[in-house]
Amino acid sequence: MNLLILALNLLEFSCLQDGPLIFRSGDELIMRIDNLAQLRLQHDRLSATLRLKGTGGERSWVIDLMDRVHPSSLVIDLSGYGDAAAASFSIEAAPGKIVGSHSVQPIPRLETLQHSGLASGSLAAVERGVTWSGDLPKIPLPELSRLRAVDLQPSPRSVNSSDITYPVIANADMPGVSSMNAVLVSRQTFAPADPSRCSLYFSYRKSLFDQNSGRLAGYRKMLVEVPLDQRWLEGSGDATITLPSDAFAIHTTEDLERFGNRWDAPKGYNMLGESSTGLFQGGQTADIDEKGRIYISNVADGAGLIRFNPHTSKFEQPPLNFHDATKALLPADGEWKRGWDRDLGQIVCVRGRVYIVYDRNYRVITPNGKFETCSGVVSVPQDHWDDPEAFRGDIRLHAGSWAGARHPLYSTDVTVGLPRRAGSPIATE
């Protein structure tokens, strides 16, 4: 049997519990460790042993959990093993020191939904806005049960990840490009006062590895600036341009978020965030103000809101805790614990302000309480980024998704299980 370990972004599974969780979907065995980040912080050594029993015999594998390449959710390809009757998973911090374990027999299965079962003639639900007049549009939904089903064939070849992983030692260590779908155009840091001279800004991120262990230690995000040259417009057709090292710039920072105090980083994370995605990627959006400063939203694992200033060639962050300051705009009364949609806040720079549209609005009920993720429109000043009190006094709430908001986005509160979205903002005159 070949063992393939992949990253998986799982939706919340209905029977999640503390410690390891094991279930199966098709030919994949999924193991989830909800507290993996805490365990990595508490221990210098951490490994997991997976044991299977079934038609493929008794097999076991050891996984190095200290390597951040392995996420908290692991997927095991069982297509070459056969039917697995039982599985166990133990986490060891030192020889004989077990800090977590879980076993299942039989292995529970999570079946995927084949079709929605929508009845013929079903219509999309449309939320009536507060200023909507007239009849609502009727948008027919497809009958997914009538779509042709196609069975995926088993993979003709599988490999063991350890068989195709090789250490590489090189004199050059180039960052890996992270953005293939967004390139920004703004003022040059080489001539920031001249709005006619522009640069392309590419989003890159670099993996950082521990020199001693070779394990992934984290990520560093950056912008690569390529100044545009008028001479590139000469001639016709495609052209390949090789730039000398002094003809472009790489912008990054070691500065931490000002008010982080994270549970696993008391001094906070890097202000640009420490996820594996690049800047203005993974739900982040970006816009540029009249002075050429580039604003980036949704830095949930960093300063929340950041900007790159071509006049100083530096990244900047608000002079206060942006997450806390904007959360204070939400109503705290009632049974619902509210927070903004920090994973999808879309940004627009206009009229000297930075507008953030928090997109999604939904409610969930958990054993820990009732939670509502809110949508709405908030704006902050483009000035006062060095004055906490002036900045705080100029944060404005323009609209909210909850009933009772001064300018409500909707006429009713959101219903559990029926999420809604505010949509993308467009600047108008």
Question: How does this model look, in words?
Answer:
- The structure is a single chain.
- The protein is mainly β and 429 residues long.
- Helices cover 4% and strands 34% of the residues.
- It has helices spanning 36-42, 322-327, 388-393, and strands at 5-7, 20-25, 28-33, 47-54, 59-64, 73-77, 84-94, 97-104, 176-177, 183-187, 198-209, 216-227, 249-251, 286-288, 294-299, 304-309, 314-316, 337-340, 345-350, 353-358, 360-366, 369-374, 376-381, 396-400, 420-421.
- The strands form 6 sheets. Strands 9, 10, 11, 12 and 13 form a 5-stranded antiparallel beta sheet that branches. A 4-stranded antiparallel beta sheet has the order 1-6-3-2, with no helix packed on it.
- The longest helix has 7 residues, at 36-42.
- Residues 1-19 have low confidence and may be disordered.
